[in-house]
Amino acid sequence: MPAYKAPVEDALFLLNDVFHIERFANLPGFSDATPDVVEAMFGTAARFCEEVLTPLNPVGDQQGCRRGDDGRVVTPAGFKDAYRRCVEGGWIGVSVPPSYGGLGLPVAISQVIGEFLISANLAFAMYPTLTQGAIAALLAHGSPEQKALYVPKMAAGEWTGTMNLTESQCGTDLGLIRTKAVRAPDGSYRITGTKIFISAGEHDLAANIVHLVLARIEGAPAGTRGLSLFVVPKIIPNADGSLGEANAVSCGALEHKMGIHGNATCVMNYDGATGWLVAEENRGLHAMFVMMNEARVGVGLQGLALSEVAYQNAVQYAKDRLQGRALTGTKFKDLPADPIIVHPDVRRTLMTIRAFNEAARALVMWISILGDIARHSGSEKERQAAEDHMSLLTPVIKGVLTDLGFANTVMAQQVFGGHGYIRETGMEQFVRDARIPMIYEGANGIQALDLVGRKLGKDGGRAVMAFFNEVQGYIKEQSGDPAVKALAEPLGKALGHLQQATMWFMQNAMTKPDNAGAGATDYMHLFGLVALGYMWCRIAAAAQAARAADTSGRMDAKLVTARFFMERMLPETATRLARIQAGAAAVMELPAEAF
């Protein structure tokens, strides 16, 4: 059975040494995130994930969810007790404002805990993390009455939340949604339609499930302009929060899936269910984007988290598995063979995964801090700059982290050889589970198109130019530090590739949009490499500063890993640029019947 140890020290290093969380004490919740409080929280969450959730991961995979005789969904053995303990730990409401029963701590804190939960048991983690996304949407767009009624119950874990977008005839193209909403005399609406692929749509973990549903009010415009968002609870609550009558919403079927078996992926039927409008009519997609963007960063986190747990198990196997002798001569003379970690190709694999994990963790933390700045800063200029960065980097985080997270689980499985193909090691489950984050919350090709087609040109390119300026400014700042300069120089070269690719799109995609479509995924990954490289420079600078006081060797390991990234991974930006500049001719030339 696979093992997991939460990377508490790495998370604390990023918060304290790289991003200096104390500098944001003027923002709500940050002053409460003292080093001792955060360390205690991470330690408690780590023990819960290591001791409770990790052993349940193969159980959930093998048992899956099932429908009981009454049509309700039953989660795998142990999930109900684990959810109770998760609720008792307060992990769902970590970043919810205290006025709604949460702790009000920075989102970066809840993202770190989220990573621990996902690494330990992705299928389980989806229940609380989807609830957090629904809470965010209600806090941003719900009425005062909706917030007061639903958010405290959800923050406490008594009720869970979902998002309901997809229908059988529409996934990415939400303008094709058919679910309809009819006004009722009392101001509520009657929701009728069928949604598919609804994660955590029905289960036995909580007393109520709060569905956020996109639907079209009768007479509304066609396309996405006519969509509205509704809160549709499984059980209609009374004004005091107690549960009343069952709503006309039910699980019609459970999907049989490749992975995440412990999470209930449901077909949801709304048969005139009572719902209440969230925000304004025909502005549902705008309101839902809050949850979607939260979810997209959360899904990117899934790519990182699965990469991390797969890496940890591959490292342990590489240290234990005896196979052959080192190319430079025997290293363990008292053993019949050397552990495979002596072999350069095994080390290349492990270093590739490690270099991704540490930089990806930093990138998620950075974007989370920016999120709190965007929500709470007293400076409009700061809020706008942070929002620009978040908007630009969200598709990068979702697309790149899940693409590479899946690739890394496959590489980690390869370290095990044939044993990686066998269920008992757990590696094949990581591979299967890591495949879905590339698909849901907007398939990664769509994320790339969003980046190139919408985000680059938004507000005259303000966000992308700000990102270029920030990275370029950082490179100039580090020119006087020899240790970091050696890393900043290759980052500057990679940034140049990104700028060239951006200019190429400006010159070649306006009249030929297929050029943008053909190069979008390469551009997203080029952008991701630069963003990860920027994180590595910041990590290395902090590691260099902390090196003198470090007796564990951890800072030296970070500096070596940073060098590995710059030498072995960042040069891929040149290949990505060449592909982009090749254009769409060969991609689009064959007629459809030739395929």
Feature tags:
595 residues, five-stranded mixed barrel, two-stranded antiparallel sheet, 17 helices, 12% strand
Describe this structure in words.
The chain has 595 residues and is of the alpha+beta class. Helices cover 56% and strands 12% of the residues. It contains 17 helices and eleven strands. A five-stranded mixed β-barrel has the order 4-5-11-7-6. A hairpin with a 5-residue loop joins strand 8 and strand 9. Helix 7 packs antiparallel against helix 8 (344-376), helix 7 (284-320) packs parallel to helix 9 and helix 9 packs antiparallel against helix 11. The longest helix has 37 residues, at 284-320. The two termini are 43 Å apart. The model has no long low-confidence stretch (mean pLDDT 95).
Shape: globular
Helix-strand pattern:
HHEEHHHHEEEEEEEEEHHHHHHHHHHH
Radius of gyration, whole Å: 24 Å
Low-pLDDT runs of 5+ residues are none
Beta-strand share of residues = 5-15%
Secondary structure category: alpha+beta
Alpha plus pi helix count = 17
Helical content band: 55-70%
Mean pLDDT: 95
Give the biggest beta sheet.
Answer: 5 strands, mixed, barrel
Measured distance between first and last alpha carbons? 43 Å
Number of strands: 11
Strand order of the largest sheet: 4-5-11-7-6
Brief summary:
The protein has 595 residues and is of the alpha+beta class. It is built from 17 helices and eleven strands.
